[in-house]
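hey so u asked for the seq, here:
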Amino acid sequence: MMKDLLLRLLIGVLFFGVAVLPVGAKTVRLLTIGNSFSRDATQYLADIVQAGGHELIHCPIVVGGASLELHATLAATNGVYKNGCTLKQHLESDKWDYVTIQQASLKSHDIATYRPFAGQLRDFIKKHAPSATLLVHQTWAYRCDDPRFSATSSLPGEPRSQKEMYEGLCHAYRTIAAELGARIIPVGDAFYMADTDPKWGYRPDTKFDFKNARPPSLPDQTYSLHVGWRWSKGKLTMDGHHASSAGQYLGGCVFYEVLLGESVVGNPFVPPGLDPAYARFLREAAHRAAAWR
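ran it, structure tokens below
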């Protein structure tokens, strides 16, 4: 499929001066407003879209750790992002098919942090990109062994486990999407579904000797959808927040299902180094999550 698409594109450029997509191909224009989680979830999206015989035009607005409040405040004050453009300029720069918003992961379980900022962003997007469909990108829960779940916190409602974080964010995203009249991109559902699968789910390595570990030795992190343990400046550190290559692929597959409205199960793109059987499971998980929604 990929070779056929590239051949058609090459012929179109040589003979017509433009790239001609196959019959039935779609061009999707996407603007994502978020943070590192939106970047992770769309890391492989263009590859997946291309492998499916379609074209993606994507403008990512990424601010590390950004919440809905931050983006809403920048919109209201005409504030600029690092590239020197305002949200208004981004929204008016193309005729977007879809615009996505998401909450910062640390706040994702708390519905109070979504209001009134999600509604303000919806209204701003509707004003400056009236033809775009608003989608709510549901982020994912942290890995089950993330330090967040073992730390003592005085914050009310702070999740004490991956399950509690997932249930909290699931409720919050469903509630705010209903208030906005928007669809959800259920990346968080797909993550939890895959993470808790009896065969393919991640399980912490209980035999690894953390006290005496030396680089580059790492615990077994097979099937981890999160970055997890890694060596940094001679220290063993944990990132149970951000997506690994497998998690990025899963997120991209969910986005594909929602944006293209077709199954990703037979899509031929697989990131380098990812086991083909595991990749198929992730595509099936994305399909089930999207169908469930």
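The chain has one domain: 2-17+27-292. Confidence is low (pLDDT under 50) at residues 1-19.
lmk if thats what u needed
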